[in-house]
Amino acid sequence: MTIPLILASQSPSRRDRLVRAGIRPTIRVSQVDEPAALQTAAAEQGVSLHFLPARERVAILAGAKAGAVQERLLAVIDAESRAAGEQVVSRPLEDGYGSVHSRLPMDRAVAGEQGMLNAGVGPLVIGCDSLFEFQGEPLGKPHTPERALERLKSMRGETGTLWTGHCLIDLATGRRANASSRAQVTFGDYTDADMAAYVATGEPLEVAGSFTLEGQGSAFIRSIEGDPSGVMGLSLPTMRSLVEGLGIKWPDLWNEREDRERQQAVRPQASAAPAGNVHQPGDGWIDCACGRLHWGLNGAAGVLLARRDPDSGLVSEVLLQHRATWSAEGGTWGVPGGAIADGESPVEGALRESHEEANISPEDIDVVGSYVEDHGPWAYTTVFAMEREGHRVEPRMNDDESLELAWVPLDQVADRKLLGAFGRDWPAFLNRLKALSPVK
C-alpha cells in the first residue's frame, strides 16, 4: 500500500528532491506567517526573538508549516464526518442520463469511502524550513538584490552552517516526529563581478543564505561537511529516519513510477495551463467509454454551495465559478472543484478544492448531500452544501483557476453559459435544492 505524502511547501527544490527519490508529493502550501510564528514562540519562552538560535527557528517553522496543513485537512475530515442528507448515484453509461442507480444516506456513503476519514495511517505531512547561520547570525531569504549581494561578499572564503528543520505528522493518528539536519558550507574565492552576475539571475533572492547547491550558485561553494541534501531544503536521510520512527516503511512512500504509468493516458488540454501549475498525484486524463476525456485519475469533485434567504429560510442562491479560459470548457460557469488527490475521498477532494479555488472553508459549511455521476473508471461527485447557521462564506479567488466567483440567484443560473455536465444536471439540482427544508 502506497502512503500519500503531503509537502507543506511550494519549494520546487524540496519537491524535486522527493520526486528523484521516488516520491511524488501532493503540494499543500501552508501559508504560515513565519515572522509571527517566530515572535509567538519567542514570547512563549519569555525571550527576545534575537535570542532564538537558527536551529530552534527552523524547528519552530517546520512544525508550524506541517501543523497548519494538518489543521486544514482535519477541518475537511470534520466537515465530512458531519455530512447529512443523501448520496444519489447515477450510472448513465448503464442506465441512461437522468436515471438514479442507487441512494444511500451520507453517513453510510462517507463511511464506505477510502479516504482520510477512514485511514489507519497517513497521509503523512512533511514541513521543512532552512536557515543559514553565519558568524552567529541566522540568515533567511534576502528578498532584495542589495541584501543578497552584501551577504555573498561577506561570505567569500568563509564557512557557515545550514540548518534544516523537519516536522512529520501522520494525519490518521496525529503522531508527530521532529528533527533537524546541519551542514557546514564553505564558500570559495570569487570576485564582486561574479556575485553581481549571480545576483542578477534572481536565484539567490528567495533561498536561505542567498545560495543554492543545485543551481548556479553551486560553482561558488568550495566544500560541504555534513548532510548535503539538507542544504537543498529537505534532508532525505533525516526524513527517512522520521518516517521509520513512526513505524512506517520508507518504500511505502514510493509512488513516482506508478504515477508515471498512470500518466501514460494523459493528453494535453486545448490551452496550456499556466507555467507555475504543479503536477499533483491524481492529475491526468481518463479516456472514458462515453467518448470523452475526463480530468482526474481518481475522479473529480466539487462543491455546490447554497445560501438561504434570511427571511424565508429557503435556498435563494448558489456560489458559482467562472472557469479560467485555459481550463477544460474554459469560460463556462460551474462549481469550484477539481481532481481528487491520492488518499482522498470524493467529499474530501471537493471540500479541499473548493477552499483552494474559492475560499470555502469547511468550518463554515454543512454537507447536505451529494450526486455521483459514475462512468466506471471515472466519476464526478457534486457535493451539496449549505452555509452553517451563524457562518458566512466570503468567496475569494485563491488560485488562477477562476475568472470570477459569484453568488447567483437560483432563477438566474440557467441564464449563464454553464459547463456542459453541470448545465445538463442543473434542473435536477435545482429541484433538490428547493426541496431542502427551511431553517426553523
UniProtKB/TrEMBL annotation:
Its cofactor is a divalent metal cation. It comes from the Bacteria. Belongs to the Maf family. Keywords: Cytoplasm, Hydrolase, Nucleotide metabolism. It catalyses: a ribonucleoside 5'-triphosphate + H2O = a ribonucleoside 5'-phosphate + diphosphate + H(+); a 2'-deoxyribonucleoside 5'-triphosphate + H2O = a 2'-deoxyribonucleoside 5'-phosphate + diphosphate + H(+). The keyword Isomerase does not apply. The lineage of its organism: Bacteria, Bacillati, Actinomycetota, Actinomycetes, Bifidobacteriales. It is found in: Cytoplasm. Residues 296-433 form the Nudix hydrolase domain. GO terms for molecular function: nucleoside triphosphate diphosphatase activity. It holds the Pfam family NUDIX. GO terms for cellular component: cytoplasm. This is Nucleoside triphosphate pyrophosphatase. Its EC number is 3.6.1.9. The active site is at residue 129.
